[in-house]
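Record type: monomer structure entry
Structure origin: computed from sequence
Chain ID: A
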Amino acid sequence: MHASITAAYLARYRSAAADSPVELLPLTGAQRRFLITRRLAPLIRSDIVPLFFAYPRGTLDLARLGRAAAAVAARHPALCGGFATVRGTPVLRAGGPSVEVARIAVAPNGTPGGGTPSGGTLSGGAAEAALRAALLDWPLDGPALRLLIAQEPDGDEELLALALDHAACDEQSLGVLVGELTEAYRRDESPAPGPDPQVLADFREAVELQLAAEEAAAGEAAQAHWGRRLGALTGAGGGAATATGMLTERLPAAEGAARSAVFPALLDAVGAAAQRLHRADGPLALGYPWGGRPPGAPAALGCFLNTLVHAVPTQPAADLEALCDDWWDDLDHAGTPFDEVVRAARAAGSRWSGALDAMLTLEDLQRRPPLVLGGVPGREVHLAGRPLAAPLAVAAAHGDELLVRLAWDSERFPAADAEAAFEQLLAVLRHHLS
């Protein structure tokens, strides 16, 4: 049996940590992938997770927001210190809060002010353009959490971007962070210098349990499963996109037992859209994050997820039963690290490089409280034109409605093709959820 990637990482980490004068914390498989990618290809944008909220003009107190953000970050090792590479080994170097809170200058003509370089496709108002440009200029080495405010020169609202390095957060972390930030702002908390020793110990325990789960999920049975599932995968040549467009549709929320069908229905619908856009003659690679803390792990904020791969057939499913059977089998092997999955696919005969042709994310908004600042709940907004990790990305949010957003590489796919693919996505989704 081959040595697992996780076991090799742990050996290198322990050697680096033993010789370090400062405390080094281990990283999960997902965190390592984010860091290794940006080190190997520094021109690729950092993976970030942004939320955007609109507030009435004059609501936000920048100094108070800065204190609240630092106070929240000081409780969580993932938002303190900094990600680093020590002797070729990705680690988290313990330290104080890693936070930036700033007001972004906005020029009247819709371009960002203050000398911030712009990039990507800018659409919408001047404040949106300024926030997009600032997020595109995310520093390679942090901070982990940024809160940026921009305001239309003559508008009656101000926009807040709450953005995190993806290596520091997952969906569960977003809910924790929003709730704690609301409370810290209400109380006007002052920050501590950093996490106390018990919090650091809890984070280390949570990550070590995650790594143990990843190592256990990389055995021969998992390799055989992923080889069977992905051995015929060809892919269409995925890659990151910087010039993007976005389409949005709001559907009724699924109720009762139908809520459990939303994700497999989205898998099939996004797969149909991907096949329509890529016009491939074989299975495509559709990636989706799946995660959760290992049983018994402390509830540490961080990135405890894995990227799973769904092999998209050339035709959508007639019904969900067979697709659900395959998906449930995949979830039984959800802990297999992505790099091990790629290895298994290639060992089974696939020439797939590991690049994803499409991405799907689903957020359950019932798990995320509103961001209330100054007594005002922020109105969540969505900005088009942000970079993508794949040529096609679909983000769905399920709350009082099902919001579906499709973003695509506008340099690769014409707008008319993207619109036709989105219509097919919606038709398949409505069929399954009806």
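Annotation 1: The longest strand covers residues 48-56.
Annotation 2: The two ends are 47 Å apart (CA to CA).
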